[in-house]
Amino acid sequence: MIRPDAPVLLEIRDLHASVADQPILHGVNLTLRAGEIHAVMGRNGSGKSTLSKVLAGHPAYTVTGGSVRYRGEDLLALDPEQRARIGLFLGFQYPVEIPGVSNLEFLRVATNARRQEGGEEELDTFAFEDLVNEKLQVVQMDPAFLERSVNEGFSGGEKKRNEILQMALLEPVVAILDETDSGLDIDALRIVSGGVNHLAGPDNATLLITHYQRLLDAITPDYVHVMAHGRILRTGGKELALELEQRGYDWVDAEPAVLEAV
Amino acid sequence: MSTASVGELVSQPYKYGFVTDIETEKIAKGLSEDVVRLISAKKEEPAFLLDFRLRAYRQWLQMDEPDWAGLGYPAIDYQNIIYYAAPKQQDKKASLDEVDPKLLETFDKLGIPLSEQKRLSNVAVDAVFDSVSIATTYKEKLAEHGVIFCSISEAVKEHPELIEKYLGTVVPCNDNYFAALNSAVFSDGSFVFIPRGVECPMELSTYFRINSGDTGQFERTLIVAEERASVSYLEGCTAPMFDTNQLHAAVVELVALDDASIKYSTVQNWYAGDENGVGGIYNFVTKRGQCRGDRSRISWTQVETGSAITWKYPSCVLQGADSVGEFYSVALTNNRQQADTGTKMIHVGPRTRSTIVSKGISAGHSSNSYRGLVQIGPKAVGARNFSQCDSMLIGDQAAANTYPYIRSQQSDADIEHEASTCRISEDQLFYLQSRGIGFEQAVSMMVSGFCRDVFHQLPMEFAAEADKLLALKLEGSVG
Amino acid sequence: MVAAPLTTAAAVAAPVHPWVGALLAGLPDPAGLRPESVLAAQAALAAAGLPSRRQEDWRFTDTTPITAVDPRLLEPGAPAPLPPVAEGHQRVVLDGRAESLEGIAWPEGIEPLGDEEAQAVLGRCLGTAAAKESDWPVLVNSAMSPAVLGLRVRGAVAPVLELVSDAGEAQGVLPLRVVLLLEPEARLELLQVHLSGGANLTSVVVGAELTSGAELRHGVVATGAAGSVLLARLAIRQAPGSRWSLATVSRGWGLVRLEPRVVQSEGEAETRLRSLQLVDGQQIADTHSRVRFDGPGGQLEQLHKVVADGQGRSVFNGAVVVPRAAQRTDASQLSRSLLLSDRARVDTKPELEIVADDVRCAHGATVSRLQEDELFYLRSRGIGAAEAARLLLRGYCQEILGELPAAAAIWQAPSFSAGPETP
Questions:
Q1: CA B248 from centre of chain
Q2: d(CA C368, CA C56)
Q3: 3 state SS of C193
Q4: ipTM score
Q5: Residue ranges of the domains in chain C?
Q6: How far is C22 from chain B (nearest CA, A)?
Q7: Sign of CA dihedral B332, B304, B325, C5
Q8: What is the rounded CA–CA span in Å between residue B305 and residue C53?
Q9: Would you list the domain boundaries of chain A?
Q10: Rounded CA gap, B332 and B449, in Å?
Q11: CA–CA separation, C333 vs C130, rounded Å?
Q12: From the CB coordinates, do chains A and C have 3 or more pairs under 8 Å?
């Protein structure tokens, strides 16, 4: 939903970043307003995932230039946990397994950290179980997964559902979903995209990172950005995604002029 | 991972390092046959016990200090140790009112209140200060059930027949160098006797406190569970911070008869020395349980976080048919600490079963070894063992070693051993942080997750305590 | 406490052990390249005597079969008939005599290594922390100053190189020494065969240096008889990018001790160890492996299998050493033992020593008999109990046997490839 007067939630300006001294992002510009769904598409190695990791504050990535403001605040100055507490959420492409740490406890600690930041009181074990059971519906997840260790032994689809469950609990202001569709079968894709649609609202924004059209059939973006060589080369509506689907990404390389222009 | 910051986290100050200023009666330094006789005389022991001590002492003279664990420490001068120290106010107090308030205060500070008003409601405590037991709570209530819970000195006086019957039958006085030393000079410790058919109505606990700087601590614990009896027992240990090392050489013997069950838990937090390895307790301990009866069960759970050196292998001799031995261990080492710990499961009887779960966490420049033995004897038809030994390394200066010996002489037996090594990965930390969980809490969650299988085995009252203890070492905000 | 593995050797100036004394007395004066190092080894052997069970490394291994061997150099008798050379194999018979190593037509890519260089290569392979010259099986070999087969390998060698020794029924000790230098990117498939039919001792030291990108596929088939002893040290030094894959199969020896010792000098190499040891009767089989990573990114995959029957004794000690420099090491070790008899005995001791935090090291050990449910499954399909057991054993052994060159089967008694006799 595009509303030109909606408040800006995330503003990325000329963002440069590198990993292990290897520059990956070469000046990314992107503005997310409340209510919008953006899709960033591009080939492997275009810098999409790096963008998501930088936004979430992964320590392996170094910002070498530019700025990111989150509701007017300097996002890059914050620790990863602080970013999460004020409403930034990254849905991981490959959620890690954390043996021994109970999923339920993890979800509770995370939810309470977010609530505390927002001035809400912490939920006790019982109140939290009620909440989590309600949110389980969103992703149609078996409560048995709560008793297991975080992501341990989960299938690809279960891991992604667990990500969306976390999103449902944390109620982010800006949600970044990195390749949430990768490795999902049709049913899982339907459930995950249903969850994302359910959680998207007029006061938050979603950034989908993907390289397939099929996720965008299920979640309709307001904007589609094409990323290559660490920059956003083109921005358009959802029809841009269809164009990519038909033409592939080769034209991206074939348009050096575009590269220069951005 | 930012191992530096995890390193900082694991280096929290020791909370229990204070010294209680109290007048003590000490004998002169050094060890000789006269000293052994003197200790026995001070405790007014019967002849059989003096004999036991002298036999042990003579054997000890013939033995060599073991060096196979490859632990590095300067030679211990056994003549430079005081073998007996006791707070003055010798006579065993009839009631707590007569106990020196300074001692009560000490245990208060350690979180072990002994006075009527404050004491733990469902745990009976025997408090041992340097060489003597100063108080035992709930004795009367336990006596109503026929349970004997008292200091071993008291037991020698009041139940000599039980002591004579069981002492030294699981760990013979010449079992090993440190056990022989203990047998010669042991000062105090706890005695527990659960008669036939009795389920001990409350948790029993002994709290050991070393206070004196030049005194060795040689406590001796004996627990006997008769047929169908059961008991859960916990020991805790702390010591002040000295820049010299104190020797602690304890012996624990457990006897379980038919259908009896003994659960023995330890939370060991002796002073570990400073970050350069100066000071700290040398903890050389022999713990062994004998499942003498059919279907008996002995379970060791230990959380080892303190001591400059830990050398202990709580073991089970599974004699009775269908008896069960268990060992659950968490050992955390940091700075220059060295831990060599594990277990022996000796399967003698048919269909005996054992489980070993060991979690070692090494940080700093420490060294943490699991050393264990699973032995299946020729008569142990149908024996089963499962062992799991996991190590977590924090930083690249710490060592984690695993030496699991397996010996089998029985074809109808299954032995299974698994071991793995892991660290806290940057990605796991980032994942938790990206959900709003702070760095310290994230590390602490992962360490306690790593130890979860062991904490589950602790009595409920102490599981949280153990978690907190690790957190104390791992988390700056606590304390 | 855990029964004390004593590390202190009886180093007191004791009289020389009679067996060692007799062996040393019968040796010719050392000739060749470095007589002083041979004399030093002889002196060290005299001081060491026989390995003692008080030493941690020999704690479970009874060495009395060694003393039953006549303590003198073995006089090779008339060569026993060997099976015909398989196609694609080149065979070299090792009988301990230097003359036997002369005038061999080596295949393309292989050429003899000069004595000096062979010594240097062997020194590098043995002389690291993981493989001290003073270890007994090396010491006894060095003291006898065996003829050295030294080879340089370049490029990909087509034929499988077969090195065969057969001590037969002769009395005495047969020392053998092989040194290989694999130049960068060289590839060689090597099959070592050691046979014995009587009370003798075959002492083998193999040193192989694998330079960058080199690959050695290495098979060892060792078949002995009651009273026969085999002591073999395989000392391997691997440069980054090299691959060593070893498969050993031993059976029948009164005492066999195999000591694969690997050092990945700068990590980044691949080591794959597969071994199968079968014991029956009064036999003792012992594998002491040690893999050390002296650099990052090394890999180890180790599987040790045991079948113990009769009153056989099996010992496995597998050390994996990962110092601080060896970040990102990925090592796995699995030891599986089948105990088929109540009088057989298995001692297993993995050893992991790790001082690096970013590593994956896993090890596992199982000791059991044949799985009831597997046996039952086969029997429920109409297969008799004995046949079912044989099938399962065969499958169990095949996992290792399959790693040997196909033609290795000729060295195995028919019942061997079918698994050992059924329980």
A1: 11
A2: 25
A3: strand
A4: 0.83
A5: 35-74+87-371
A6: 33
A7: positive
A8: 35
A9: 8-261
A10: 14
A11: 18
A12: no
Where b means 16+ CB within 10 Å and e means fewer, A41-66 reads: bbbeebbbbbbbbbbbbbeebeeeeb
B408 and C341 in contact by Cβ < 8 A? Answer: no
**Euclidean distance between CA atoms C110 and C89, whole angstroms:** 14
Q: What is the pTM of this model?
A: 0.82
Q: Which chains touch A (3 or more CB pairs under 8 A)?
A: B
> Is C351's CB within 8 Å of B394's CB?
no
- Tell the residue number behind the tokens 């019967």, with chain if given: B46
CA atoms of C309 and C127, how far apart (whole Å): 37
Helices and strands counted in chain A (H then E) = 10, 12
For chain A, the residues whose C-beta falls within 8 A of a C-beta of chain B are: 56-60, 79-85, 90, 92, 95-96, 98-102, 105-106, 109-110, 113-114, 117, 149-150, 166, 170
Tell me the residues of chain C between 354 and 413 that have a Cβ less than 8 Å away from chain B. 354-369
Exposure string for A149-185, b = 16+ CB within 10 A, e = fewer = bbbeebeebbbbbbbbbbbbbbbbbbbbbbbbbeebe
| Residues B436, A170: C-beta atoms closer than 8 Å | yes
Q: Is residue C215 helix, strand or coil?
A: strand
Q: How confident is the model at residue A69 (pLDDT cuts 50, 70, 90)?
A: very high
- Of the partner residues B422, B425, B435, the one whose CB lies closest to the CB of residue A110: B435
Do A54 and A15 contact (CB within 8 A), yes or no?
A: yes
- Encode pLDDT of B166-210 as tens digits: 999 999 999 999 999 999 999 888 999 999 999 999 888 888 777
Whole-number percent of chain B with pLDDT over 90: 48
- Asked if B433's CB is within 8 angstroms of A79's CB, the reply is yes
Q: How far is CA B209 from CA A27, B9, B116, B428, in A?
A: 63, 26, 20, 39
Q: Give, in degrees to the nearest 5, the angle at Cα B110 between B108 and B112.
A: 60
Which among B3, B179, B405 has CB closest to C349? Answer: B405
In the DSSP assignment, the letter for residue C268 is -
Per DSSP, the three-state class of C85 is coil
The answer to whether C231 and C260 are in contact (CB under 8 A) is: no
* Confidence band for C12, pLDDT divided at 50, 70 and 90: very low
Residue-wise pLDDT tens digits, A74-130: 999 998 889 999 999 999 988 888 887 889 988 998 999 899 988 999 898 889 999
Assess whether pLDDT exceeds 50 at residue C421. no
Q: Are C176 and C222 in contact (CB under 8 A)?
A: no
What digits encode the pLDDT tens for the residues B64-89?
998 888 788 888 899 988 888 877 65
Task: Report the candidate in A105, A56, A100 with the shortest Cα–Cα distance to residue A81.
Answer: A56
A8-261 to CATH, choices 3.90.1640.10, 1.10.10.10, 3.40.50.300, 3.40.50.1010: 3.40.50.300
What are the DSSP E strand ranges found in C355-411?
Answer: 360-368
